[in-house]
């Protein structure tokens, strides 16, 4: 019993010594956003049918999948009516694949309506991602289309700037930079903006 207490004290001492010599510099992302459309949210009480999630050029991280963040969020909002594009099917239930551009026009939306049963498209894509040694600047769009009406229901642009040099230092000694994942945080920020302006059942 005594040896266990002594061992625990030694471990705590080693941890405290480690924190003395290792300091962390936490980087923060500066956000800005704007809604391109007049609508800033979605009235889910006035929607019906299935949703198709189409993501493009999203840089992924092993511990945080940006597409999965959007999928889980919209699934919660719609009552599990979202399908990822990779699992897209036609009206007969067969796998159906074709490219959907980031800004589909009326004819392209008509084609989707004629060949599938989806009523809405969630388009999420990166328009800019400049990753430098000292900084990173990214811009992502979250667009929602009503396929039947051939209408862009909602469009939000989220911009993030990350200064990799400056940060908040904690402690003294050997410095470790803590740099956050950019894209998942931008996605979450954009979805939160939409959620606070939306209506749910």
Would you kindly provide a written description of the structure presented here, covering whatever features stand out?
This protein is of the alpha/beta class. The chain is 28% helix and 34% strand. It has four helices and nine strands; from the N terminus they run H-E-E-E-H-E-H-E-E-E-E-E-H. The protein has helices at residues 2-21, 66-78, 106-115, 182-195; strands at residues 22-26, 29-35, 50-56, 82-84, 118-131, 135-146, 151-163, 168-170, 174-178. The strands form two sheets. The protein has a six-stranded mixed sheet with strand order 2-7-6-5-3-4, with helices on both faces. Strand 5 and strand 6 form a beta hairpin. Helix 2 (66-78) packs parallel to helix 4. The protein is elongated, with a radius of gyration of 23 Å. The model is unreliable at 13-21 (pLDDT under 50).
Give Rg in angstroms.
Answer: 23 Å
Q: Got a strand count?
A: 9
Shape: elongated
**Structural class by helix and strand composition:** alpha/beta
Q: What is the CA-CA span between the terminal residues?
A: 57 Å
| Strand composition percent | 25-35%
Q: How many separate helices?
A: 4
What about the largest sheet? 6 strands, mixed
Strand sequence of the main sheet, in spatial order? 2-7-6-5-3-4
- What is the oligomeric state here? single chain
Mean pLDDT: 86
Secondary-structure element string: HEEEHEHEEEEEH
Question: Which regions are unreliable across 5 or more consecutive residues at pLDDT < 50?
Answer: 13-21
Residue share in helix: 25-40%
């Amino acid at each position: 019993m005594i040896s266990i207490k002594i061992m625990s004290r030694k471990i705590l001492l080693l941890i405290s010594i480690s924190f003395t010599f290792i300091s962390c510099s936490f980087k923060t992302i500066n956000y800005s956003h704007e809604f391109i459309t007049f609508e800033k949210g979605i009235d889910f009480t006035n929607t019906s049918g299935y949703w198709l999630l189409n993501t493009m050029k999203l840089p992924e991280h092993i511990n945080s999948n940006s597409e999965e963040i959007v999928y889980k969020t919209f699934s919660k909002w719609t009552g599990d009516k979202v399908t990822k594009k990779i699992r897209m099917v036609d009206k007969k239930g067969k796998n159906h694949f074709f490219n959907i551009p980031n800004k589909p026009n009326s004819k392209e939306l008509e084609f989707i309506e004629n060949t599938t049963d989806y009523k809405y498209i969630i388009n999420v894509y990166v328009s800019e991602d400049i990753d430098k040694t000292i900084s990173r600047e990214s811009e992502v769009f979250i667009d929602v289309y009503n396929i039947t009406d051939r209408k862009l229901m909602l469009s939000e642009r989220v911009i993030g700037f990350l200064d990799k040099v400056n940060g908040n230092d904690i402690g003294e000694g050997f410095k470790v930079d803590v740099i956050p994942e950019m894209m998942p945080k931008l996605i979450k920020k954009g979805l939160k903006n939409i959620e606070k302006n939306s209506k749910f059942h």
